[in-house]
Amino acid sequence: MRTPVAAGNWKMNLTPDAAEALARAVHDAAPGLPGVEIVLCPPAVYLASVARVVSNGPVALGGQNLYWEAEGAFTGEISGHMLRWVGCRYCIVGHSERRHVLKETDDEVNRKVRAAQRHSLVPIFCVGETRQHRESGQMEEVITTQVRRGLDGFAPRASGDLVIAYEPVWAIGTGLTATPQQADTVHRLVRGLIRQLWGDALAAGIRILYGGSVKPDNIEGLVAQPDIDGVLVGGASLKAEAFLAIARGCRLRSCS
Ligand code: PGA
């Protein structure tokens, strides 16, 4: 049984006070949500204050990005070491905003995925096609390339060493959500690719999350799908009530 994940990607939002208050609300509610792994990914400058709030509780902390070098003259970058020191267990890698707005390549994403593992961080490795890719019938090819290139040379020892997030670019922050069936089709494709890479046992255990306009009112349909193991949430993770409702929705999966 794969434990579902509800991960909140706060992106470049919130004031310091609001970040702390949101973390506290999630931390306080989390013990009442057993069976779901809750992860918060605040902006890097708030990691330390959020870590203080969630330490000694069930909520895990994640970075939104990392650099592949361990230290040195890389102005503005943050290493895996630093994320670990501040209390992160996870790090989002290859989010579509980094791929498309910040022009990260598959090669850079791959370096980051491997760097995360070197620093004992679990990458939340993101893949997803654009609307144009989907409409021109290239979805499968794009996802396959992103998975193969992004995970080249990555060697998971256990299924907990990696989380994958399928986030169709056309669904992120747009209010458009992939239907549960559309998402599940891609999740099955990704799981099949993982099986080819690392065999049945790892493919059966690695969690594949869906992301893109997840809200309290669409969570149930998504997690009812056999290959959707939780969600990566942007906008709706900025409000405690909405995010906690989503996390509760993920429990339906663990209870079923
Ligand atoms: P959204 O973002 O929930 O606001 O669509 C999801 C994401 O980018 O991870």
- What ligand species are in this complex? 2-phosphoglycolic acid
CATH-level-4 superfamily name: Aldolase class I
Q: Briefly note the structural class of the backbone.
A: alpha/beta
Indicate the CATH architecture. Alpha-Beta Barrel
User: Which blocks of ≥5 consecutive residues have pLDDT under 50?
Assistant: none
Structure description:
- The chain is of the alpha/beta class.
- The chain has a single domain, classed as Aldolase class I (TIM Barrel, Alpha-Beta Barrel).
- It has 11 helices and 8 strands.
- It has helices at 16-29, 47-54, 80-85, 96-100, 106-118, 131-135, 139-150, 180-198, 200-205, 219-223, 240-255, and strands spanning 5-9, 37-41, 60-63, 90-93, 122-127, 163-166, 207-211, 230-233.
- The protein has an 8-stranded parallel beta barrel, surrounded by 5 helices.
- α1 (16-29) links the parallel β1 (5-9) and β2 (37-41).
- The termini are close together.
- Bound molecules: 2-phosphoglycolic acid.
- The site of 2-phosphoglycolic acid has 13 residues, from β8.
